Amino acid sequence: MMVMVNAQTSFHDFTVKDINGEDYPLSQLKGIKVLxxxxxxxxxxxxxxxxxxxxxxxxxxDDFTIIxxxxxNFLKQEPGSNEEIATFCSINYGVSFPMMSxxxxxxxxxxPLYLWLTSKxxxxxxxxxxxxxxxxxxxxxxGKLVGYFSPKTKPDNEKLVSWIVN
Length: 166
Hints:
By secondary structure, the chain is α+β, with helices and mostly antiparallel strands. It has a single domain (11-161), classed as Glutaredoxin (3-Layer(aba) Sandwich). The protein contains 5 helices and 6 strands. The protein has helices at 48-59, 82-93, 112-118, 120-123, 158-165; strands at residues 15-17, 23-25, 33-39, 64-70, 136-139, 145-149. The chain has a 4-stranded mixed sheet with strand order 4-3-5-6, with helices on one face. A two-stranded antiparallel sheet has the order 1-2. β1 (15-17) and β2 (23-25) form a beta hairpin.
């Protein structure tokens, strides 16, 4: 079944569910740069949680935040429930940036936000594919897609940090 999404003009037009199942309107992030990351607990890249948390601790606040979207799209590397994922992130990596409910980032059941992130016809910037866990999408203060970094790009990457601070 194909999910139909009206062309959204902004990231801020979406409301998602947080890891506890509560509504999380992305409109509350107006004026803040956002790094959107699809995450997984049993992936070779899972240690990136540590770098993401360090990035959040260093730069997070009024000007920047990170939002994690657990996804089980790649080799079933995120099999847990939202509660299990929250516990894993807290115990193993001290994650304090906002984590959302588990979503699908590709395929027929792709979450509407990820359809927006990956479709030029929706985001107005570029088409992309989520190629693996820990792909990083950059959203500017106005809710526009700026671009993305591949899953293997570490959170302390010079270009990524430069985007945050400039």
